[in-house]
Fold:
Amino acid sequence: MATTESEQMAYIAAQAADARVNVEVETNEGMTLNLGPQHPATHGTLRIVAKLDGEKVVAAEPIMGYMHRGYEKLTEVRTYPQVTTLINRIDWLGSFANEVPFILAAEQLMEVEAPPRAQWIRTVLFELSRIANISLFLGDMAVQVGATTPVFYAFRDREFVLNQIERVTGGRFHPNFDRIGGIKDDLPKGWIEETGSVIGKMRDFCDEMEELVLGNEIFQARTRGIGVIPPNVALAYGLSGANLRGSGVDWDIRRDANVGLVYDEVDWKVWTHPDGDSFSRFWVRLQETREACNIIEQLLDGIPAGPIMAKVPLIIKVPAGEAYVATENPLGEMGFYVVSQGDLTPFRVKIRSASFSNISIAPWLLKGVFVPDIISILASLYFILGDIDR
Amino acid sequence: MAEIPDHLLKRAQAAREKAEAQQQAEPEDSASPEKNDEAEATEEEIVVTDEHAEAALTVLERELDGKLLNSHIAPMRGLWIRVAIEDWRFAAKVAKEDLDCKFFDWLSAIDWMPSPYGREHETEQDKLNEEPEDNDQKEMEWGYTGGETRFQLICRVYSISRKIGVMIKADLPDNDPRALSLIPIYPGANWHEREAREMFGLTFDEHPDLRNIYLPGDFEGHPLRKDYPLLSRRMKPWPGIVDMELLPGDDQ
Amino acid sequence: MISVLALDPAWWQQTFLIKVPIGLLAVLLPAGTIVYLYLFKAISFMQSRLGPMEAGPYGSMQLLAEVGKWLQKEDIFPTKADKFVFAAAPFVVLMSTFLLVVIIPAGPDAIFVDLDAGIYFAMAVSSVSVIGILMAGWSSANKYSLLGGIRAAGQLIAYELPLILAVVGVVIQAGTMNMQGIVLAQAEGEILGWGGIGNPFIFTQFIGFFIFMVAVQAELTQAPFDMPVAESELVTGYLTEYSGIRFLLFFIGEFASAAVFSAIAAVLFFGGWYVPGIDPTNDIFNVIGPLILAGKMMAIAFLIFWFRFTFPRFREDQLQRLAWKFLIPLSLANITLTGLLKVVV
Structure:
């Protein structure tokens, strides 16, 4: 038995590690391969336990919770305005988009509506965070199938978008900018023109990605016909966003169930792809980035003048009631089910994050594929670990 | 700085005028007492949306045939129904087959018991000023469609063809909170049920793999229950509310 | 100086003490140059970044810093590893690289060993590295390493064949397996009766060159054929458990092999140490020959790294399909065509 204190600590740590690691996929044959929680392919600490027969996957089981932060519990002890600080960190690549559905749900319960200018700026920032998020996906997907270069372009060009977000909100990653009844600040001077030129850069980036990644024969060989999700299965598993549209389901919350954002004011298109494979998911996301550029450009032309905050009480007490508001976030449908009992804090907040549902199809989808396909399929489903673990 | 093209200026001007017109129109609207988010929308739209929800509710009432305990329609916001826990899976089946709700959105639970720890966002300072609350006395208040027991299951499914989302609620018995799993109808319920189980201590029958999903296997307690203390907050009170009360203009 | 060399061209071949440092230099210098110029710099510029800039002018001393770092690191053996095999594996890989350098001609007399079947020898010893990689993968007691090692074995064996078959075309055309003979055949050859630039085999054997480069890319396990190390799937495959000096040895082996295979390609298809305008028997080639060969080698190595940082990775089955269903039939057709033309012309 261990004697010194450090030895004892090591023993306890080992025991704790064993307790967490002893998860086996219940099949009798083959070799168990642990991908993660620290693995170069899993951005974050998602762990995949795969049973292999040679290189073929017999069964695969994602295991998460290594980064579970308990936001649903934490929101219960924070006042409504404080919650946005937390939920910023759910999908950390498009964090402004996280704040919007919660704020909208609170506004719905309080029966206030943000003034038009605030709504337009919200929508612009929402779409900017979509570009910031998906542009990284476009590069990252290429890295997961083995091309190292595109991700550098993605990081380079995403920075332009992040700079624009930072100039408005003061935060590159965690803006915490949305307020119940409006937004925190107005746009800085000259921002609209600058954003226009950034949109031009992002269009070039999309063209570059289309040539470098999408048009590459090896990329197509690696993704076409791999990880096919039929529309019915996608719906039953609650897949949303580009994963759903990549399966040919013509469904976009921005168009079909829009709440509080001004998508009706612009002329845009929902892209779908009938194949349902990894390639189609990449393709849909690429087109969506372009479409987001279109949306932003049209919105920038017509941001109305006026106040940016509605009249809300200084101390926000939300009337009793329940509201569910979902928005079409970069990763898919993100919704907040807010139960209020008329207090300063929410009584219960259920966070419906896109990645959690998107990745829940993995055990079904990964059966019978090869080891390299685990990586490319997971990459094409596109999850952010904070969005799974919340 | 780049020069602003003429057409942009024109569009901005037009938008500004439109906004100003809206602002001028606003005082008339706000005269009506029931002004809320729907007041912004035209009358027609409200009616249409209500029809969606009403039509869906009619279908549900017909198919559930008396098993529907309660319902609630919030215009433009959705439809809530409540069924008995025995009919939980049946209600989901009806929603999927008769209402075309193929999209499984999410599943979770609510613990309606008021927190025995009070409002934990307060500082120790605030607690000194207030009279101590006797939380055991506090009654349970339920949300839309009411409730009878402490735990309530809630599940949202969506119909893409009808563009209507249905929240299905069911009360779980206090002594043995268990329900039938929805996996045969919506395979996506698998992980959501695992999460609800570990967070609330519920049981789902016929679930193939009811392991913890987030928490370590040997974790004790069910964190989202209201009687599970948020330890960090017990140890160190949150100073947040103090900042708010120091804001100017707070005296009224 | 030149006359001294000309008088006694074999002076450096006779002394073990000179041979060994020159051999080391012949392996390490091209490898280091490739790592700095391509892996650090050219690729950084392609990826719109600067690469190392701090150590030395334009970061040119970065490699020394890296080597110093690796030498200082602990040489870790996994608990369940097969210690002897684990320790020996990098040397086996490196051995194959050193053996390859031996037969590459850098001038009429600047060659370590002038074997009659030089290219045959090269193809044979290049396969030895498979054994080293398999040893590394098996002995690491790591599942990623095992998968990587087995992938590498399957891949290297599959691409050995197109590699050899691509060379056969050159051998038919040159009429010899001797590396010097192949260089001379190109230097003294004529293109349709015009001998101005000799006859580099790239003009007639461009199919062979294509197959050779693809196969070399696979032999070197560079992207798009880097499944054995595939860092997004298998961490780093058979290298996963290696650290410190043993990792350094693998690293040297990888890039020295890239240099050596580029040099072989230069010899087979671009006339090796020969440049047009100078009589190939001129002794000056013993001095400028290594430089010319190095120049050609660097140009070809650039291709390897350009592909490496542009293409995504194949899947294992697609890689095998490419080898067996496309490259091997193509190279057989190339051989047939070369043979026919050899007889007819």
